[in-house]
Specification:
six-stranded mixed sheet
Length: about 400
C-alpha cells in the first residue's frame, strides 16, 4: 500500500509545507492500523484524506496491472516517480483531493472530543500537583463517564491514574481501584494484592453467537480480513512470544471460543487457554521463538508443560482437555518426560490451521455479515475443519520420546 504526502507529515516524513514524500506501508499490522475504523478515529481529517488518496491510487495501480498484465513493481516505481518528479497531473489530482478537506471550516465531533479529554487530563494533573487529589480524581472520572464507558482498555488506563491519585488519600482504596484497572487490562501494573484467577466457563454462551458478535465488530468484509491477516501473520514461528500468544488468543475469540492468556494475565498457568464448549478445553504452551534448527524439546520445556497441566487440573474439574505444545520439533529429550497426554503442533500443522482459518473467513465475502444464519456458519466450520472434532484431530501429532 502506498501513501502520498505533500506538506503534511506522517511521523517525521516531511518538515515543511514545501516538502513532499512517498511512504510505502507494508505489513498487515500497519495496514490494519491505518485502515481500521478503531484506530483511524485518532487521525486528523487531513491524514485520513491522505490515506484515502493512497488507497485510491493503490486500487488504480492494481487495476492497471490486471488490465495490462504489467510488472506490479514497475507500476509502483512509476507511481512513486510521479510524486517525486512533481508530475503536474499528480499535483493537480492531489491538490483537488486535499482541498475538499482543507476547505472544511468546522472540526469534527471526534476532534472536539479529543480536545475536551486532553483539557480534563491537564486539569487532573494540575490539581494533583497542587495537592488536590480529590479534584484530580473528579476530572478523570468525568472522562470515564463521558468518553470511556464502553472502551474497557481506555477506562482501565484512567482507573490506573485514579489509583495513583487515590494513593495520597487511602492505600486500600488505591489498591482496590488498581485491581479494577488490571481486570480490564492485564497489561497495566499489577496490584499489590493478588488477583484471583477467573475461570473460563460456557455458562449461557453459544459458539455461533460469539462468532457472529466477532464478525459484527468489523465494519465490512475488508476490515474483517485486515483483522484476520494480522492475526495469522503474527501466528508464525519467528514472531515474539508476546505477539504470537496474543494472536492465538485473538484467533480463539474469532472462531467463537472463550480465550484467555493465564500466564500473561494472572502470572500462572499456560500461555493460552480456549474454552470450546461446556467443560471442553484446549491448553497451549507456545515456543514461537525456538529456532527451526533445534532438534529436540528440552527437559525444562517438558517440565513447564507438566506444571501447566497440573495447574489446569487444580483449577478445572474435567478430563476433556487437549494439551498442545507449539514448537518446531516433536522430539522430546531423553532427559525430559511429559506427565500428561500432550501433542505437538509443528510448522506444517500450524500452517494448515492458518490456511483453514483464512479460507473459512474468506467465505463471508459474498454475505452480509450480520445476516448469516446459525446453520450456515456451522456448515462452514465443518467444511473448513474448524469444528471441535477437527480441532482435536487435525492440527497436532504425537511426540517422539528419545531414548538414552
Amino acid at each position: 500500500m502506498i501513501e502520498y504526502f505533500d506538506a503534511i507529515t506522517l511521523g517525521r516524513s516531511v518538515r515543511g509545507e514545501k516538502d513532499y514524500s512517498v511512504i510505502i506501508i507494508i505489513g498487515n499490522d500497519l495496514v490494519k492500523f491505518i485502515k481500521s475504523t478503531n484506530s483511524s478515529k485518532f487521525f486528523s481529517a487531513q491524514t485520513k484524506n491522505q490515506i484515502d488518496i493512497g488507497i485510491e491510487v493503490s486500487q488504480m495501480a492494481r487495476e492497471e496491472q490486471l488490465e495490462k498484465n504489467s510488472n506490479p513493481i514497475q507500476i509502483i516505481i512509476d507511481l512513486i516517480a510521479q510524486c517525486l518528479q512533481r508530475d503536474e497531473g499528480w499535483k493537480e489530482f492531489y491538490k483537488e483531493k486535499m482541498d475538499i478537506v482543507n476547505n472544511e471550516i468546522h472540526k469534527s465531533i471526534s476532534e472536539k472530543d479529543i480536545l475536551e479529554v486532553l483539557e480534563l487530563e491537564v486539569k487532573a494533573e494540575k490539581s494533583f500537583f497542587m495537592d488536590e487529589p480529590e479534584k484530580a480524581i473528579k476530572h478523570l472520572q468525568a472522562i470515564i463517564n463521558s468518553y470511556a464507558v464502553d472502551d474497557y482498555i481506555e477506562k482501565a488506563w484512567y482507573l490506573q491514574n485514579i489509583a495513583r491519585y487515590e494513593y495520597k488519600l487511602s492505600k486500600v482504596s488505591s489498591n482496590k481501584t488498581q485491581k479494577s484497572a488490571y481486570k480490564n487490562n492485564p497489561q497495566l501494573l499489577k496490584p499489590k494484592e493478588d488477583i484471583n484467577y477467573q475461570k473460563l466457563s460456557y455458562i449461557n454462551e453459544n459458539r455461533i453467537n460469539r462468532i457472529k458478535d466477532w464478525l459484527s465488530s468489523s465494519k465490512n468484509y475488508e476490515e474483517l480480513m485486515l483483522d484476520i491477516n494480522e492475526i495469522l501473520e503474527n501466528l508464525s514461528f519467528g514472531q515474539s512470544s508476546t505477539k504470537f500468544e496474543k494472536a492465538l488468543q485473538n484467533l480463539g475469540n474469532a472462531i467463537g471460543f472463550l480465550s484467555q492468556r493465564p500466564d500473561n494475565e494472572f502470572k500462572k498457568g499456560p500461555d493460552n487457554l480456549w474454552c470450546a464448549s461446556n467443560n471442553e478445553y484446549f491448553i497451549f504452551e507456545c515456543k514461537s521463538e525456538v529456532k527451526d534448527s533445534r532438534n529436540e524439546i528440552s527437559k525444562s520445556e517438558t517440565g513447564q508443560m507438566n506444571n501447566h497441566c497440573g495447574w489446569f487440573e487444580q483449577e478445572y474439574n474435567t478430563q476433556q482437555v487437549k494439551r498442545i505444545l507449539i514448537i518446531p520439533t516433536k522430539n522430546v529429550s531423553s532427559q525430559g518426560n511429559f506427565t500428561h497426554d500432550v501433542e505437538i503442533m509443528r510448522k506444517g500443522k500450524l500452517k494448515l490451521l492458518k490456511d483453514n482459518v483464512k479460507s473459512f473467513f474468506k467465505e463471508f465475502k459474498e454475505y452480509v455479515l450480520n445476516e448469516l444464519s446459525d446453520s450456515k456458519i456451522q456448515e462452514l466450520l465443518v467444511a473448513h475443519k474448524l469444528d471441535i472434532k477437527s480441532l482435536n484431530n487435525e492440527y497436532s501429532e504425537e511426540y517422539y520420546q528419545k531414548k538414552n
